[in-house]
Amino acid sequence: MATLAANISAATRLIQVTGGESVTLPFSFRLDDELLDLAGFDPHPLVAGFRQSGSDRTRWRVNRGAGGSTAASHTAGATLKAAKAAAVSAENLTPPVPFADAGEGAGGVTVDNTVDPPFNATTLIAPGAIESAPDEADLTEIFIAYKRTVVLTDAQIKALPTTSVQIVPQPGVGKLILPIMSYMILDAIAGAYTNIHANGTTNPKFIDGGALHSGAFENHSSNFLGDNDPNRPKVTLMPYAPSEADTSYEYAYSENKEIGVKADNLASGNFTGGNAANTLAVTVIYAVMDV
Question: Between the CA of residue 246 and those of 79, 118, 138, 167, 250, what are the distances in Å?
Answer without folding.
Answer: 38, 47, 34, 22, 6
